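Consider the following input, taken from an annotated entry for Cytochrome P450 family 4 subfamily B member 1 (Chelydra serpentina).
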Amino acid sequence: MTPSLPEPLFSLCIFLKKSLQLQDQELDKILSWAEKYPCAHSLWFGGFLGFLNIYHPEYAKAVYRRADPKAGDFYDFFVPWIGKGLVVLHGPKWFQHRRLLTPAFHNDILKSYVSLMADSSKVMLDKWEKRITKDKSLDIFEDVCLMTLDSLLKCTFSTGLKVRSSDKTTLPTAIHDLTAMIQQRIKTFLYHNDLIYWFSPHGRRFRNACRIIHCNTEKMIKERKERLKDKRELENIQKKRRLDILDILLCAKDENGEGLPDEDISAETDTLMFGGHDTTGTGISWLLYCLALHPEHQQRCREEIKEILGDRETIQWNDLSNMPYITMCIKESLRLYPPVPQMYRQLNQPVTFFDGRTLPEGSLVSLHVYALHRNPTVWKDPEVFDPLRFSQDNLSDQHSFAFLPFSAGPRNCIAQQFAMTEMKVSLALTLLRFELSPDLNKPPNEVVQLLLRSTTGIHLHLKKLS
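Applying the prediction step yields:
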């Protein structure tokens, strides 16, 4: 006879199993509910924690044009990883950090990043050229995320290729694992209890992954601080036309001449390490998949970039504003596959929606971006890849809160222009080098792990172009 589990342990195992099953089926369930309830529906975790799941542009406008804080319980799960940076902060301190970091993403600074992004993309493409075979596809996801990590380190931390090759393997893996573990914790109500979570195997894995991230961050900050002790080095940095994020954080002073505390510097650095490469890598991977599925759009993008470059091989800042079709394809890919498919808020004052329904202060709200972008009452033929939705002729008919891959309002993504720049650069260089087609035997299986992942990878066939 098989020994039976004690009743409490057996119940916990059943609960965890059902939670994971719900996660695997979540996107299909949400889309079916969105079809039945076109604006919003309630959603409960474990029968104890409920919030309103919204996916209509008017509902999104009512909440996201305000600066309500991120939903406390959910975003508190990030704190052991990224500390209290822009993702978690609210109120005056959030405003201070936002104001401090905004200049780092100004166009004048982004200009100098284009060549660095191109260098990272070319390293990835060279690797692919050596690995491709006629009959075997490549899972591009890990390579794309390594590329965006290289790009992030060069552009915003000036570390370039000084990071050890071993770090390039463990760091992205740790970030990938942490996003999956936080999503699992959100979906598993018992794991909302710190005592249960930190003594569980999942909690221990979470702590170990955090150590990898924090060791890398502490190393970068320590090295930069040592450099800044040299007055001439400090003067050179302050005179540079391009200050990186770490320079800005370490040199920032408040009205009393006090610098940021070390914990704030570490928090913003860790926040950027997550948001600055993992989300962009995810977006680029889905973009390449979309164009592999639609060769007619892929070819039109290729012709556009060839016409822009002519005999040149290097992409320049001014080229990016001359890519209307590529831009439309990027936006359509972000519509179908938003890297961050769900965002949470906790109302700090009541809200009244356009249909007269109301929510009181303290209510939890989830903006389901994936469902909003595929809502049939908002988008015609929402499952169809149609870049012309974002043509100038059609934009006038589009609701300002219908397309929200970077959120909206005062708490929108501070680095969205950085991400769009990198997507354009990497896509253009990839299409000049390869023809993409999908591996129909290995289709992606979409799942939410904070970001929109595929549990089966993203497999593409690559054909070298002459």
